[in-house]
Amino acid sequence: MATPDAPPSTMHEKTAPTDSVRLRSITILGLFDLFDHHLTFDEENRILIVYGPNGVGKTTILRMVANLFESNFSYFRKVAFKTFTIELSDKSRLEIAKNVPDSLEESEEDDSLHEGASNLTLTLRLPGQDSLEFPAPQFHPDPRQFSLHEFERYLPVRRLTAKSWRDLRTNEILSLPELAQRFGEDFPPLRGSVQKPPELDSFLRKLPVHLIETQRLLSLPVRPSTRAQTMGADEHTSTVIRFSQDLSTRIQRELARSAQLSQQLDRSFPSRLLDQELPSSVTEDQIRHKYLVQGDYRGRLMEAGLLDSADEVALPERELGDIERRVLWAYLNDVDQKLGVFSPLLAKIELLRDIINSRFLFKHLFTDKVSGFRIETRQGSNVSPDSLSSGEQHELVLAYQLLFMVHPGSLVLIDEPEISLHVSWQQKFLQDLERIAQTADLDFLIATHSPQIIHDRWELAASLTSDNS
Question: In angstroms, rounded to a whole number, what is the distance separating the alpha carbons of residues 267 and 99?
Fold first, then answer.
């Protein structure tokens, strides 16, 4: 229940930073047999930018981090490196050492079912404990019998060799473990597991990691659960439309929660009113102030599309009687709870709209429970979200994904955010990202070619060159 000094307009406005573990450092030795890179995260900042010429490993670093925390150890077989070390803020550390050269010969088809990273050795160091050393876990497919040719019938892939497939949507070449990583959740024959020691599993669960490759933002793949879905229209729905629908669903879900809470509070209101006395510390000025604060907050909720417009009854200008104060105080505290349901969602919607509407020159983003995103031109015409320019869609999709679709406390890896962004938008990117980091409780590791992304924030940047060590 809200107190007089905690009105709904300030409750949950920002997601408080969690006590979750954060990434402290990344060290890679012998990357591509050329480079040694060491990256350290500043405890005071939630953003680290890596930059450098093509070929020094910016994107590879992001993918190594992402694949590690997805337990996709087969990825590391493809990369030339000596050691890859991750240290977390709780001083736990994991090192992957590549101790056997990759074989250039293709394995037999049966062997491909059990492809693992057998040439990798993992060393886990936990505070106050002895180091643990073990081979990299291997992927184990579902033990039931299936044909490898079955994949092409139901998945958007084409088989290339006994152990590799091409994803027809992204043109990537995937091994069986990577195929399982991408489609196993919805395609039963690919369901399998990576059997990890409990200590390693616990380490990898400490830090949620989310990779965003911005060149794919406008066509994020949909996991197919059936052949019809794979071949159907859902697969081709633009990301901006899918996110618009997602926002509509989120708003309607919070409306349902608020309605349910309202019913509970309304049923118990008479008994609570009879049983509870007005606290002696509550003055009429506090009641009137709370009423005004709630009115302002309702206005924000209506502007965000979370509440329909409604006329509010003004309080009488005369002095309130004892019974009136008692009833109003109980009523206003109930309203705090009913409206407080929307506070986390409201903070994200307001930040999304503020970012987008400061970027769009001739259009305005509105949000509502039916449409999700509603775009209007200066002339008042409605524009479908997927009719926006690629740059406008990119900005909207990226901001929405970060605010609404990434778990709080995550490390977000963003590859080349400058794609499709105008230079002036690139210069404001970090400013927006810092606001998102605070609201959504996220850390960021960014790889970029663009000095405009860094702009005047070079204290957040680390150069990757052949001299890094």
Answer: 68
Q: What mean pLDDT, rounded, does the chain reach?
A: 84
Angle at 129 between CA 125 and CA 131, to 5 degrees: 40
pTM for this predicted structure: 0.81
**Tell me, what's the pLDDT at 230?**
35
Four-way CATH pick for 345-454: 3.40.50.300, 3.80.10.10, 1.10.1040.10, 3.40.50.720 = 3.40.50.300
Is the distance from CB of 37 to CB of 28 less than 8 angstroms? yes
CB 451 within 8 A of CB 418: no
| CB proximity list for 86: less than 8 A, separation 6 or greater | 23, 25, 26, 65, 68, 93, 94
Token code pair at residue 308: 């329909």
Strand pairing category for 120-125 and 139-141: unpaired
Give the DSSP letter string of 33-58.
TTEEEEEE--TT-SEEEEE-STTSSH
The structural domains of the chain, with segments of one domain joined by +, span 247-344, 345-454
pLDDT reported for residue 279: 85
Give residue 141's pLDDT: 64
What is the C-alpha to C-alpha distance for residues 13 and 231, in angstroms, rounded to an integer? 42
Cα 325 to Cα 4, 205, 281, 287, 309: the distances in Å are 14, 51, 12, 7, 26
pLDDT digits (tens, 9 = 90+) for 59-95: 999 999 999 998 888 889 889 999 999 999 999 999 9
Q: Is the pLDDT of residue 106 over 50?
A: no
Task: Give φ, ψ of 18 to 5 degrees.
Answer: -85, 170
Query: What pLDDT is attached to residue 305?
Result: 95
Write the DSSP assignment of 91-134 as a string of letters.
Answer: S-EEEEEE-SPPP-SPPPHHHHTT---TTEEEEEE-TTS--EEE
Residue 111: pLDDT above 90? no
Measured between alpha carbons, how far is 448 from 192 in angstroms, rounded to an integer? 35
Strands 363-368 and 120-125: unpaired
